[in-house]
Amino acid sequence: MATLHTSLPLLSIPIYGMNCVGCAGKLQSALNEIEGISSEVNFALEKAQISFKENHDHSKTLSTIITLLDKKNYQTDRQALIFDVVGWSCVSCANKTVAALSKHPFTFNVQSNFATETVQLQTLQGAFTKMQLDELLASLSYQLTEKTQQNFQTQQATKLTNQKKRDKKVLTLLAISTLLSLPFILSMLVMFITGSHHFLPRGLEFLLATPVQFIIGARFYKGAWNSLKDKSANMDLLVALGTSAAYFYSLYILITGLDQPLYFESSTLVITLVTLGKYLEHRAKQSTSSAINALMALRPDTAFVKKGKIFVSVNIDEVQQGDIVQLAIGEKAPVDGIIIEGTSYLDESLLTGESKPLLKEPQSTVIAGSINGEGVLLIKTTAVGESTSLSKIIHLVENAQMSKAPIMQLVDKISAIFVPIVLVIAALTFSIWYFTTGDFQQALINAVAVLVIACPCALGLATPTAVVVGTGVAAQQGILIKDIKTLQQVFRLQTIIFDKTGTLTEGKGSITHCYSVDNNDELMLAQLAGLQMGSKHPIAKTIKDYCSEKQIEVIAASDISAVNGEGIQGIVISKEKATSEILIAGNQQMMARFSISIPKKLDLPNEQTIVYIAKSGQFWGVISISDKLREMSQDAISELKQRGLQTIMLSGDKHSVVQYIAQKLHIDEYHSELKPEQKLNKLIELQKNSQVAMVGDGVNDAPALAQADISIAMGTGSDAAKETASITLMRNDPRLVAIAIDISKATWHKIQQNLFLAFIFNTVAIPAAAMGYLSPAIAGAAMALSSITVLTNSLLLKRLKIKELS
Ligand code: ADP
Ligand code: MG
What we know:
This protein has 806 residues and is α+β, with helices and mostly antiparallel strands. The chain contains 27 helices and 29 strands. The chain has a 7-stranded mixed β-sheet, sandwiched between helices. The longest helix is centred in the first third of the chain and has 43 residues, at 152-194. 45% of the residues are buried. Mean pLDDT is 85; it is low at 1-6. It binds adenosine-5'-diphosphate and magnesium ion. Magnesium ion binds at residues 499, 501-502, 697, 699-701.
């Protein structure tokens, strides 16, 4: 069991019922008080992300979380799993199974039935991946089989029906509320036009207002009560207090028969408008997540897998690495894999933003979620389920959307003290009006207006909605933005540093010259390729590919070690002599390091990368590699220059090659023959005067990538680079750098605009209400409007003009 918990993934769960950003903040701190976990709650996404600490007994953790949610009246999607058990001989066996299952952090409420030989447990929907569940079951001493295997699609379907049910309920309440408010609106209109008074009979006003106050308005009372239990105050409290004051005061007048106006229309309209606002807000929140939903929809449910001689349709969860999958015309690829038969055009646009379908032939890679054109393909599976690129993209985007910037923590803090402050302002409003004018009604109504208008909803929505839309738009272009910190920094970038090989060049060069002093090119290449088995450098790949193309059999090398930025060395066994010899390959510095003298009159092209080869301390030969510039590199550089950014190329390659490329691309500045640590130092030097981004593939530039203010990893780069990069480009198009910058900037601008709008609204509206310029009903409408304005502003990001790349 011990090993099972070592690398627990994050658990991301939906949270329903949070009314404002303050609630999210409260929930987050409450969750973080639970031992053994840390969590982040995102109001806009209605999600909590929980990470479980290692080496902690998690048998009670999830049930504690659920109890907490229940106590706070929040809902999440639970799921019950039922298993058939084989092999129990006594009740204590059953207890043992229960104890073992309970230990897993994702389970709670585990129960066994010895008589029916079943185990039932509760978990949260989607908490377990198929693999994790299998792993858990395998660790048990008895054989458990799940009774109803729910796959992704059905899970989504249940989620959707649940959501629809909730939506429908809210909509029904809203409709009733609106109907009951209509007479008030009409009477207000008539009053406004004719100047007459008391259009509605007083009794009818009471009859209309009461159900709204206590049935439609129940959610505000509940929310207010929950927050009071927490010794805090939220927007529900403001609405509940405000409307109750108006309602009960009117009731008092009605009962005592005093000849004073009633304020039933205020309480009713406020509740209706705030409910309407909440509903629209909820709808808009759903549409902010449309990008990620589109990605999720790319996951097919079943795959056509070869079993013996025939293909059968199997559940996607059962496909394994190595399985041969048939991909029919127009279908979505269910797995990552390599084509073994067939050619077709595949549409990867939703994954990489590449607009044109790509030609795929045998040996080409296919990524799950890409859509097949007009050829049937046989694919050998290399990754399934959670390991596919698609799943990784989804996780990355989700994580980015969950992340909180310092500014957001500030907003959370403000929201938390906001409500108490508003209560004080309302109390002051009431007192000042009452003591200066002696008019109780006026004082009360103005205080109510303050309470109603001050809800900090717009403030809470300002940041997360923009982040969700912005990262979504980026994902559609094939740009993965890691977190909101990145959005905040991209804004200030002044310098963009590019690595050369694999970034501005294609990185898959071709060998144009090959020379060996003993005229034994083939042996030299065979041993060189063996040496390069130990390297992930694009040069290594070029050499290996060349050998397999020329059908040169690779001779293995041992004790391989790389000298970063210079070359590679190792030991090869020579067949004839039965001795082992040291083989060295690399650039001039590498040769100098081993005191190898290079013959003078090697006639080699200036603009190509040269790899010198030496054996047993003697110069053996040389190859020259031409690495094509990426077609889009020129545009990429000029786009950045247009935006006023300085472009710099740092390379480990020799001066003449780097110069040639820099001049061709019109790069502002370039430095050649740099070792990884020199690239790093150069970058640190540049950072003294400007904000620097580094674009690279993580091969020989990882230290610089890590140091840069913003790191941008190329899609083909090393996994490590992609994991740590602030921005990952899903396709190898350096032009995306400029687009990523545009999107990040636009998103950041939106956040600022939204925060400004929200703050301005509250700073203007609260004094206006306190001074008696706003009636409670108008205050309610204005409040709803401010949330909707912020949301709409965020959604406008979707309209961002992005230059069409071809
Ligand atoms: P770049 O900055 O252009 O990406 P690198 O720092 O990755 O270049 O490498 C610098 C130089 O070191 C290369 O141009 C090449 O001459 C040499 N080199 C690096 N790795 C290897 C290798 N595996 N085999 C031969 N030469 C290598
Ligand atoms: Mg490189």
